[in-house]
Write a structure and sequence with these properties.
The structure is a homodimer.
Chain A lengths: L19 E3 L4 E6 L6 H4 L2 E7 L2 E3 L3 E3 L4 E6 L5 E9 L8 E7 L9 E4 L3 E4 L4 E2 L3 E3 L8 H12 L5 E5 L17 E4 L3 E7 L1 H16 L3 E7 L14 H15 L5 E6 L10 H14 L6 E2 L17 E4 L14 H4 L3 E5 L3 E2 L10 H13 L3 E2 L3 E2 L8 H4 L7 H15 L5 E4 L3 E7 L3 E5 L7 E3 L1 E3 L11 E8 L4 E4 L4 E2 L1 E3 L3 E3 L5 E3 L6 E7 L1
Chain lengths: 518, 518
């Protein structure tokens, strides 16, 4: 085994056989091995990585040109050792070690579930998903892909929903630059041979997102092929081998989330047993338990299943009005991410012509319900570059308002936003004894009389006083209200202010209040 | 074995060892057996009932005074034979037969699930649950219990949520007439010995409901004891024996539904494993697969579990406004019954002071969402006889409006009401190509322009014409609109009427439309 000495590797693209890797970074063993026959089918390779009795045992993969790789994302600092196992002697028994050092600034580790309905990075930093949708942005060629990354660098989005396979659909008739299998489009594929160039490109894009601090919500299957390339109707063996190959390549990227499918219920060639089996493959072969879900069209998957870390829901009306979005917290007791709620745009289809106001309203609705909402944009474009499918640039007016909301949530709600009094006051979210956001949605009140549910008061001292700010969610202003409001109990359910002072509001829609202890 | 010859037995209270029983009626073997030691613990008894290779094998039970019984509800017509099994020779090997004859008028059999979200009787007659809540009406003594039955005989309710155990709670401080175990209140119980008088009384009430065509939604455990009698914290063995005894006595009543608990999540002495075990006992020992669910307070049970036939949900806001109630159909794909949505009444607690208008509105909201809603009433009463707990008489104004709604549903919707275009038009329910109800809730429109979603039109011929009626859900009137409206496609999503005729509406809340093909 040849070990090149390198400096501490950046976490994003691994240098093979590095001696130092940061925590949650990516270490890679690269080995030379057989090129004859079919390395994808004939060669088995894995490695055991160990540090202080803590171990991962990921599978490796063939990267073409006689090079085999095994990747590991170390999650504890210290000296890691490794040893490979293979059915081929050239690849078997390679050993070595590397140092896992402290993470660099900005590396908070992978995302995991926090307090049932929320998320955090592995270092404990809260993570609030404000995602967007660019289904096949990695299949648009260097120019648009670079443009997409530039756009994302200045957008508020910290999660991107993106497909592995190319898409064939309205506004998506172009062929991709790379194909996942050797062969020729549209259907002449050797499903026994992956094309490493496809996967190298895809994982480079995942790394590009990581460098921007963006989670890659990777959609493993989708129905927008309809047999044109046939990736939506491969055999069971091919499906399973594809999943293992992808996991071997990608699981060590700490920003990876697995979405088994988009609109799984539209994939006629797959059965529920297939989805359960795919979930099993992901659970078995991803040693890091990255976030896992599956996305529906008309029919929900059973998100109560233990493999599902969060519900990745499509619903066109749940975040339209108060009292809806939070209902799905009850059956699932997991984070609810409304990953498709229609899109801001101007296509004729009603799923793609929300106003910017409505898109922003829906994200607020989700947040105030203790859930999360993913953005998407479908403005018609002369070259058919719609953000929702291809990326490019954003044309809409919602992203900066989503950025504004994201800042408010991040600075206000370290423990997330939950309904405070869920059957009574559907406009209020926060944490009892800590902080509150009150959203008025499409109502246009001209004043608000201070009132908090008794349930909000647990943890505050008697006579707690509050600071109120008026938030214009569209104009993106935050105006402090003069004076402090003191909460007194009034009956069984409410705390109000003795003096009954009114907070003036401008009589326009999309206003909110931030209420925090003084 | 002594077999008394009797006439065809009414289905309601079985005459032991009858020769004729109607389909879905109740046949009972009565045997004399040991009275020494403890028959409840020492004696095992069951019987195998068979007709044409179709068989049930229920457990029997000791009814006191040396009498043992085994009950069977035959579900096919023909000659049934039976043979008992017991660990006591006096009870073992008794054999006999009876004729199962056609059901009498009004006997439609037990209720089962129909088309995923709805219900029907075993003979195929649709069953729309319009239930009410009288938690401990069977523990109030003959006078009030008779009064309750008289009230129910003239009320619209076809399901009653009712507890086996007595309740100790606000407005419920009275001791019951019967106790389930031998001993003395409050806590001096011999949990090894049931008091048959208690169960005989309870099952008589179940039979009284059956005679009125009312399903008995029997709540097996509840938290409103708090250790006073201790029925909420019995040992595992006692719990399990109690369940088997109750099932042996009651399962053969075709109007029985099993609700494992009310507000199960408030029962601190029980674990999730207990609930799963109770479900297993019900599944194992009820040979008829009666309807099964469990009712929550703050935390939902996992209604996706296979033993659950329908979700029996408490939620104080899901049926308050459009677009909420139907959301729970997605995760469960089972009938959703909002069995507690707050109550019509005037107690200080917010769970019990809905206006009658709000109660009726909530039932309509549920129905228009493709779900069902249960009534309850909590008007304060000089003798503390609140309908919700004790029965008695109804004081509210919602029951007659619920009767009106029930009639509309029964005459309009043989296939139930489902959302037609669930992300777009949350006011409309019905069946494509068949019939529709449109509910305006608290909106007060003065006119309606004919429009139906394209999804509604599947199954109609081109140029289908519709008859519209204006329904005042509060004043209980149905006014036909003159003329027929012809549906023409207008764009991708809508059918409207070329002439654009407007239907006049009175500008008041709680109006609805019935739209059916002419």
């Amino acid at each position: 085994m040849s070990t090149k000495s390198t400096e501490s590797t950046p976490s994003i693209q691994a240098k093979p056989n590095a001696q130092k890797v940061e925590r949650w970074g990516l270490f890679e063993i690269a080995l030379e091995g057989p090129q004859t026959r079919n390395p994808f089918l004939d060669v088995r390779l894995s490695a055991r990585f160990e540090c202080d009795g803590h171990a991962f045992e990921p599978e490796g993969f063939y990267d073409g040109d006689g090079i085999y790789r095994v990747r590991c994302s170390p999650d504890v600092e210290g000296t890691w050792t490794f040893a490979t196992r293979s059915n081929r002697p050239e690849l078997d028994g390679a050993t070595g070690s590397f140092e896992c050092v402290a993470p660099s600034p900005g590396n908070h580790g992978p995302v995991r579930v926090r307090r049932t309905f929320h998320f955090e990075y592995a270092d404990g930093t809260p993570y609030y998903p404000f995602g967007t949708t660019c289904y096949v942005w990695t299949h648009q060629g260097e120019k648009i892909e670079k443009q997409t990354l530039d756009t994302l660098a200045h957008a508020p989005f910290n999660k991107v929903r993106m497909c592995v396979f190319p898409k064939r659909y309205s506004w998506n008739e172009n062929e991709p630059e790379f194909y996942p299998f050797e062969g020729a489009p549209p259907t002449d594929w050797d499903f026994g041979r992956f094309d490493p160039a496809f996967f190298r490109h895809f994982e480079r894009r995942v790394g590009d997102l990581l460098a921007l601090g963006i989670e890659a919500d990777i959609i493993l299957f989708h129905p927008y092929d309809k047999g044109y390339w046939g990736y939506d109707r491969m055999t069971r063996d091919t499906d399973d081998r594809y999943l293992r190959y992808l996991i071997a390549r990608l699981a060590a990227y700490r920003n990876v989330w697995w979405s088994l499918a988009n609109e799984f219920d539209l994939m006629r060639a797959k059965t529920m047993d297939d989805w359960h089996r795919f979930a099993g493959i992901v659970v078995e072969h991803d040693p890091y338990t990255r976030m896992r879900s599956i996305h529906n069209c008309r029919t929900f998957y059973d998100y109560t299943k233990p493999w599902v870390t969060h519900a990745s829901v499509q619903n066109g009306s749940a975040v339209e009005d108060f009292g809806r979005a939070g209902l799905l917290r009850e059956p699932y007791e997991k984070p609810i991410v409304y990953d498709e709620v229609k899109y801001e745009g101007n296509v004729a289809h009603r799923w793609g012509n929300l106003s910017a106001e409505e898109m922003v309203h829906r994200v607020w609705q989700g947040v105030i319900a203790g859930t999360y909402v993913t953005h998407g944009e479908t403005y018609v474009h002369p070259d058919e570059v719609l953000w929702w499918a291809k990326g490019g640039v954003l044309h809409g007016q919602s992203p900066e308002r989503i950025a504004f909301l994201r800042r408010i949530v991040e600075e206000t709600a370290p423990d997330g936003l939950d309904p405070i009094d869920k059957w009574q006051n559907l406009r209020l979210a926060g944490q009892p004894g800590k902080y509150f956001l009150l959203y008025f949605g499409k109502e246009c009140p001209t004043e608000w009389t201070f009132e908090l549910p008794t349930k909000a008061m647990a943890g505050f001292e008697e006579g707690a006083r509050f600071r109120v700010e008026v938030i214009d969610t569209w104009d993106m202003t935050i105006a402090p209200v003069e004076g402090l409001l003191e909460a007194e109990p009034q009956g069984m359910y409410i705390y109000a202010c003795d003096r009954n002072p009114k907070v003036a509001l401008p009589g326009k829609p999309y206003m909110a209040l931030r209420i925090v202890p003084a």
